[in-house]
Amino acid sequence: MNMVKYFFLLFVICFQSAISFSQDTRKINSDKSHVFSFYTGYSKYIERDDAMSPFKYRGYSLPLEVTYRHNGAKCRQIFYVNFDKLKLLSSLPNYENAGLSHYVQNTNIQIGYSYMYRLFRLAKFQTDIYFGGEINSLLNLRRHAYINNNEFLMLDQFSSIGLKALIEKRFSNDKQVATLNINIPILSYALMKNTYNAYNGDKIDPLMNYSGNMLLYLAKNGDFVSLNRLVYFKTELSFIQFISNHIGVECKLSLRYYQFTQYEDMNYSKNLQSQILIGIVGKL
Questions:
Q1: CB-CB contact of 41 with 29 (8 Å)
Q2: Beta bridge partners of 272
Q3: Radius of gyration for the chain, computed over Cα atoms and rounded to the nearest angstrom
Q4: What is the per-residue pLDDT across 121-163, written as a single tens digit (0 to 9) for each?
Q5: Separation of alpha carbons 209 and 141, rounded Å
Q6: What residues does each domain of the chain span?
Q7: Please, which of 37, 102, 114, 146 could form a disulfide with 67 given CB 3.0 to 4.6 Å?
Q8: Cα 28 vs. chain centroid, distance in angstroms?
Q9: What is the rounded CA–CA span in Å between residue 270 and residue 45?
Q10: What pTM, to 2 d.p., does this model score?
């Protein structure tokens, strides 16, 4: 009889433990989610490329971005692809009848992946602070038009690894989320180092009589650069409003700036990109 009571008591303890574990597991899993976003909006560019022109070029575009976010119990992972193509104009007038054109056809592609771990939780403010790193690759391809529609090709291409911080604020109804993040690359692999102009430079000189794939050649002959040659940061502020358990809308403000030293301390490529994006959000 005592043995029956013992097994009954043991069964009750195990059953209660299983229920408690199940509740804790559901609570932890409720913090996990997969979030997909598709954006478009308004993008403004200011570009200056000393190797091509002393003037600033400005333009506007309709960018596209796709983002995937994995929200773990104590970590955040983000993968994104951003693309836009636009025409940049300088303060110089175009004299098309005389064969003089001053514009830039600009193509921008940026791909990135970041992993961040939660460092602090401010429970009173329902705010978490994450810190980690990001790997990203940026391509800024420019076709400068000059006399008689002749075009000179120039590009900035960096593949970087750097630091990333994220502040995430959740509201009491759990239907709204605000985030602020900043990314600063520390080490980059750049393709167009020591470029004096469209005709002269360490990477351009061998291409004058090169019959193969130029981009492949440049990719094999890049250089590692750090903060002394590439100053770069990107910051984003976003707000998500869920209208159901799985569907929401997001507004995101993005600011990106870089300054790349093309040739010693004489030539620089400077780019300022600001974006206002509106997106559809799906949560699984």
A1: no
A2: 46, 257
A3: 26
A4: 999 999 999 999 999 999 999 888 776 667 777 888 899 999 9
A5: 21
A6: 1-30, 33-283
A7: 37
A8: 29
A9: 11
A10: 0.81
